[in-house]
Amino acid sequence: MGEALREGLRENSGSPISPISPYRKGHMDKIEEWHENRTKVPPGKYLLKCIKAGKASVWHEGQGGWGRSEKIILWFEIMEGEHLGKVLPMFLPLGNNGKVPQGSKYFTAWCIANGLRRPPRTRLKEMPPAKFQNKVYEGEVVDVKPRWITGREQPDLFQYSRVDILYELVVGDPNS
Question: What phi, psi does 105 have (nearest 5°)?
C-alpha cells in the first residue's frame, strides 16, 4: 500500500493545507451522496481519513425481531488510488447503559485512535467518538451483501462497501 503516500502525509501533517486539516467543505455532501447511492469499492486495505464521527440510534432486525440500538457511525474518505475521495461508513455497536465492552469493535478501534492506550474507564463519555476525526488510518474495507428473508442474496444493486477494521493510526495526534 502507498508507502510514499504515507510518508508524504506524515511529513505534511503540520501544514495548513495538510490532507488532515479540519473539516473541508464537501464532506457532508459526500455523506449525503452515500445515503442516496451507496458506494461500492473492491474489498481490501485502504488508507482512510475519518471525516465525521457520531452516535446514532439505528432500527434493524436482530435475533429478537426489529428493534433500535445505539451505534457509533464513523465516516471515512479513501485517501489513495482510483477510489480517492469516496466515502464509506464504519458501524460500531455500543453496549448497554453507556458502557463499552472491552472486546467490542468500538473499544478496539478507539484504543487504536488513542495511540494504543486504554481509556481510564470503559464508559462512552470517557471514549468520545470525536477521538477518530481528522486522523488517517490503515483499514480493511469489506462488501455488504444483504440477503432476503429467505436467505438468498439480494441483487448487486443493493450491495455496498463499509470499513470493517482499523489496523493502525497512520497520521494524527492520538492525544487530540
Answer: -65, -35
Cβ 159 vs Cβ 144: under 8 Å? yes
Q: Which amino acid is at 84?
A: L
* Close Cβ partners of 118 (under 8 Å, ≥ 6 residues apart): 111
Measured between alpha carbons, how far is 13 from 139 in angstroms, rounded to an integer? Answer: 19
Every domain of the chain and the residues it spans:
3-11+39-171
Sheet harboring 65-78: ordered strands across? 87-93, 65-78, 44-62, 136-144, 160-171
CB 25 within 8 A of CB 32: no
Local mean pLDDT, 10-residue blocks, the chain (176 residues)? 59 44 60 82 96 85 73 94 94 83 92 93 88 96 92 92 96 87
Kindly provide the residue ranges of all beta strands, DSSP E only, lying in the chain, ordered along the sequence: 44-62, 65-78, 87-93, 136-144, 160-171
Burial class (CB in 10 A: 0-12, 13-18, 19+), 32: exposed
Which among 119, 95, 97 has a CA at the least distance from the CA of 105?
95
C-alpha to C-alpha distance for 32 and 28, rounded to whole angstroms: 6
Q: Is 121 helix (H, G, I), strand (E, B) or coil?
A: coil
Helix (H) / strand (E) containing 13: none
- As a residue count, the chain comes to 176
